Amino acid sequence: MSDLSNKKSFFLQIPQISYASTSTELSDKSRFEYFSRVVPPDNFQAQAMVEIVKELGWKYVSTVAVEGDYGERGIASFVSHSSEANICIAVREKIQRNSKTEDFDRIIERLLQKPARAVVLFVDEDNTRKLLKATIRANRTGYFLWIGSDSWGAKVHPVRDQESAAEGAITILPHRNAIKEFDDYYLSLRPRFESDPCNSTSETNLNHKKNSNIVINCRNPWFREFWSQHNNCSFNNSGLKKCTGHEIITDYEQEGLVPFVGIRFGNCFNALTVDGKTFRRIGRFMFFRVARDQTICMILRIVDDEVKFQEPQRFDYLS
């Protein structure tokens, strides 16, 4: 959220509701009086990461933050919660803006100077990738036990072609469960043709005359261009095959933030056993255990006799 946007919201008294802004700074109602969100702030995931460390029985960890509000405030929150849980911090490193390859090598060297193998990351995905690459150069693949924040989450980019450096990592992500109704709607969309009675200024889509399962997209003026590029066809005589509207959308996966726009949550698994511990489905955070051949999704917040995680706050962001 930009400072200009906040000032406009304040002076015009216009409420803003965000589906993606997680900065803890935005929780300050004296500054952001008209701002609300439907995602948990970063200090919530910092608390969740402390709970993971506690459950694994670790008492000595290092941290790496990316320079800026996200990384520095996130790690500061983790350190604050970890002190309450009697977890000691071995090394605190920060990735500066425009860090070079040798800077990442030096970070790994300093992490290796202490016996703490567990490393908590509040680092963006590009710098996470560079950090993992540095462990390969240092011949320390598999040495560190990474706990990554939601900027890593379930993304493939940080580990692509260097999966061995991330094996065993645990990453955290606000719970995202695909909305079936959105998939049904999106996959039913078809481009408009001249024969379709779309008003050029219409903001309403139309049901297909002959097929009730098809919706003519009159609202989005760029949908025809998307359809043309996605299906490698053309609506004019450009040399490509002609678009007919009978093509289908393939290789589609719902964007992860869609559930937050819809303010709808679900669960990931009923139960899963990892390292002899049973994790049952209750909560709004999930985390990922990176294995050699797959990524396993697990619910973090637990209410169970076997795994006694601390009960976190209720996730009521609009109150």
Automatic annotation (TrEMBL):
Record's bilayer topology term: Multi-pass membrane protein
SUPFAM superfamilies: Periplasmic binding protein-like I
A GO molecular-function descriptor: G protein-coupled receptor activity
Keyword set, alphabetical order: Disulfide bond, Glycoprotein, Membrane, Receptor, Transmembrane, Transmembrane helix
Pfam families: ANF_receptor
Annotated transmembrane regions: none
Localization per record: Membrane
GO CC annotation: membrane
Residue ranges annotated for the Receptor ligand binding region domain, each copy included: 12-205
Main location as per UniProt: membrane
Family, per entry: Belongs to the G-protein coupled receptor 3 family.
Name the record gives this protein: Receptor ligand binding region domain-containing protein
